[in-house]
Design a protein that fits this description.
Blueprint: E1 3-8, H1 15-30, E2 35-41, E3 46-49, E4 55-58, E5 60-61, E6 69-72, H2 83-94, E7 98-102, H3 105-111, E8 119-120, H4 127-132, E9 136-137, E10 142-144, E11 148-151, H5 156-169, H6 171-181, E12 189-191
Parallel strand pairs: 1-2, 1-6, 2-5, 6-7, 7-11, 8-9, 10-12
Antiparallel strand pairs: 3-4, 10-11
Helix pairs in contact: 1-5, 5-6
Length: 193
């Protein structure tokens, strides 16, 4: 059975936070990894406009329990005020979905209460706020605490996706992706024991 990955898209999403991991996951599927990746919107299919104006067509509405891995890119302060999104993040994790936040997407997970008392990281400019909200901030590029995986600034989404491919599909698939992308995973991956 393939690893079912959903990437949460919304107006204001930081393009690299979403597209970097999407590329990694797409290459993993081509390299023989059993990965199925879908872009999803909180409400309904449609178009979103990214932080830098890129228009992206999103084919599917988000069903919180229909995934193995949910990736939440940064850029969306407006989602922190959406009680349905916050409830659905909790619902997803309670249903067994691994929830992964990239950059300030981790602050959305924090607003939902998912980082309270847990090892996590985010963009360096938001680490103090994440700690003030109860997250146990770890100085690492990627922090893997089981069903909560977080990553630092914008380009760390590529490293988060490579780590998840390593974790779920094996190192050989991740190395194949690195070769095709001419990119080597960088920084520390911190794992809970």
């Amino acid at each position: 059975m393939p690893l079912r990955v959903r990437i949460l898209m919304y107006d204001g999403v930081e393009e690299q936070d979403a597209i970097g991991p999407r590329d990694v996951l797409g290459h993993a599927a081509r390299a023989g990894g059993q990965v199925e990746t879908t872009l999803v919107r909180p409400s309904a299919p449609g178009e979103v406009t990214g932080f830098f104006g890129t228009r992206i067509t999103v084919p599917t509405a988000w069903e919180p329990t229909d995934a193995d891995l949910l990736i939440v890119p940064g850029g969306g302060d407006q989602l922190m005020r959406d009680p349905d999104v916050l409830r659905n993040l909790v619902r997803a994790q309670q249903a067994g979905v691994t929830v992964a936040g990239i950059c300030t997407g981790v602050m959305l997970l924090s607003a939902a209460g998912l980082t309270a008392g847990r090892p996590c990281t985010t963009h360096h400019l938001a680490k103090a706020e994440l700690a003030a909200r109860g997250g146990k901030v770890i100085d690492a590029r990627v922090v893997d605490d089981g069903n909560l995986v977080t990553a630092g600034g914008v380009t760390s989404g590529i490293d988060l996706a490579l780590w998840m491919i390593t974790r779920e599909c094996g190192a050989s698939v991740a190395l194949g992706v690195e070769s095709v992308m001419e990119y080597e995973q960088r920084g520390v991956v911190w794992r809970s024991s």
